[in-house]
Amino acid sequence: TEVTEKLEEVVMIWTKQIRQVLVESEQIRREADDVGPSAELEHWKSRMSSFNSLLDEIKSSRVKKIISILQAARSKTLKQWKELDGRVTIAANEAKDNVRYLYTLDNFFGPLANASPVTVMEHIPSLMNTVCMIYCTSPYYNTSERMTSLFLKITNQMINTCKTYLCEG
């Protein structure tokens, strides 16, 4: 029982740390007003990396051994652990999925940032088709919050491109 108590303390510390990571990941992002759509992809790539690392740690043999010992001891801490494990898995899957979908927009980011306004306009129909495809098929990215954020960043990039064109022209 002494060993079980020590292991439960370790799991409770991990639980607290994982909860903190989840809370921070769900907080509203602070971004500059003129940030472009590539920032959205970078955000999700970073989040994917964080949650994949966390999942790797959770699935490590060291953690699995501790969890199996606590299962054998019928520890009450495992209910919280399993719930958090599930939430981390969902967050990792969401980030991976969002990166995959946002990469379909990646080939538009260069023209949006570096082209003339006329060239930008030529890319708008296919860009909107791709955004529509993301909205219709992504299980995670099809919310009004996600789409609003993406459209805001696309619009910011178009405005910045036009400003640059006007100032240099």
Automatic annotation (TrEMBL):
<dbReference type="GO" id="GO:0005858">
    <property type="term" value="C:axonemal dynein complex"/>
</dbReference>
<dbReference type="InterPro" id="IPR026983">
    <property type="entry name" value="DHC"/>
</dbReference>
<protein>
    <submittedName>
        <fullName>DYH5 protein</fullName>
    </submittedName>
</protein>
<feature type="domain" description="Dynein heavy chain tail">
    <location>
        <begin position="5"/>
        <end position="167"/>
    </location>
</feature>
<dbReference type="GO" id="GO:0007018">
    <property type="term" value="P:microtubule-based movement"/>
</dbReference>
<dbReference type="GO" id="GO:0045505">
    <property type="term" value="F:dynein intermediate chain binding"/>
</dbReference>
<dbReference type="Pfam" id="PF08385">
    <property type="entry name" value="DHC_N1"/>
</dbReference>
<dbReference type="GO" id="GO:0051959">
    <property type="term" value="F:dynein light intermediate chain binding"/>
</dbReference>
<dbReference type="InterPro" id="IPR013594">
    <property type="entry name" value="Dynein_heavy_tail"/>
</dbReference>
